[in-house]
Amino acid sequence: MTAPSQPLAGLAPPPERAPSILSLLLHPPSNMFQAFPRDAYEQPVFRPRRFPHLLAVVSDPDAVRRVMLDEVADFPRHPQSDEIFSACFGEGLLGVTGETWRRHRRILAPYFGPRSVAALAPVMTEAAGLWAERWAALPRGAKVDMAAEMKGVSLKIVSDTMFSSDAAELTELADGALSATQDGLKLGLPDALPLIGTLIRRRKYAWVRREFARFNAAVTGMIGERERDLTSAPPDLLTRLIAARDSEDGGGLTAQEVRDEVVTLFEAGHETVATALTWTWYLLAHHPAEEARLHAELDAVLGGRLPTADDVAALPYTRMVIEEAMRLFPPVPTIAARTPRTACEICGVPVRAGQRVFVSPWIIHRHRRLWDQPERFDPERFLPARSAGRPRFAYLPFGAGPRVCIGAGFAMMEATLVLAALAQRFRPRLVAGRPVRLRAQLTLAPIGGLAMVVEPR
Q1: Is the pTM of this model over 0.85?
Q2: Confidence at residue 3, expressed as pLDDT on a 0 to 100 scale
Q3: Nearest Cα residue to 10 out of 337, 411, 278, 293
Q4: Would you list the domain boundaries of the chain?
Q5: Considering the domain 30-431+439-456 in this protein, what is its CATH number?
Q6: 321-338 pLDDT, tens digit each
Q7: Is the predicted pLDDT of residue 372 greater than 70, yes or no?
Q8: Rounded to an integer, what distance in angstroms lies between the CA atom of residue 103 and that of residue 200?
Q9: Residue 436 near residue 4 (C-beta atoms within 8 A)
Q10: Using the 8-state DSSP alphabet, how is residue 231 labeled?
């Protein structure tokens, strides 16, 4: 089966002009970035011409560094961003700010260092191996939803690393909660309106909390069981979080804080990796030359066996394929909005106090001033020679600044091992006649899934 001839989703050049406000209200796009014109991908700071004081999209790497790192205290998260994350993740790392966030970050950091992540690699490889056997048992020509497949293997990995078991019920509840939230939490122009927007958002957030209630209750029950006999509990992430202590004050997390961190890590950890892998398969199916080079590297290094953590350094092209897929399809396409405490200028553009300031990986990764032929899939962009001199804040698949994703190392290890284990045995092909459309909300996903046929190599 050959790759379909339809154009790649989301890779068309941006429009010259943004859609009208009426058009956006009547027909809100599933991919919010369809509303951004070419200027947004060429200017260091973009403001909509009709509503220049509504928002500012910052893409200049030095300006991004200023907003996200150097002057981060002067650019706190917008209250609406805090509302969204709090509704989904409670008092977890994504939902808290200030000293509470710093304390949680200190407590969690040791569990996501390189040595800790490498120790979890066998769990990742085992799950990938099980998925390979699952694919091998499929009837020839059987169609799968690759988005669901990658979510399935990622859910198993996060479940096994956090709970030492395949918590099937918990996994189902987690998947249902986040999927329903992604479908229902579609923020548009009405949400930004005074008064009525506040009412609309409150109803949505209340609905989100209800969707997460069963998952939260299941995690709370599991925490209670561990606390009753912590000495004989398995040494997984849940047990470690319950026993963890802050290096500064010696205190631990409350049961609710443990629950909210588990919910955050479980949901954010599986969704982002699954999304990255989904789009990686999509791009490889459209680019046979790059796919062939990936296969050659896997054959030479692995020779048919499952990969290990020690193999990752010997699979540079595999990593570059994933990095380039996350450039074109960043799992989290926009970072939580910031708001300057006082009026200021960014790259000479005046920005009012309280105005929304957006840093969008989607836009930065396709910006004409930062990338050559930005809509082209080219993993070799990430060769050391071609990466030298590239601004640090021109590539943000895991965010930036103090709130950069704590699980970035875990995610890259998982994505590399899963891709290596599966790609050395299979060549997933896109099903013809199934156009792919993007949904860009909290994460980036194909609407209705991604239909593929898993062909053995």
Answers
A1: yes
A2: 45
A3: 278
A4: 30-431+439-456
A5: 1.10.630.10
A6: 999 999 999 999 999 899
A7: yes
A8: 33
A9: no
A10: G
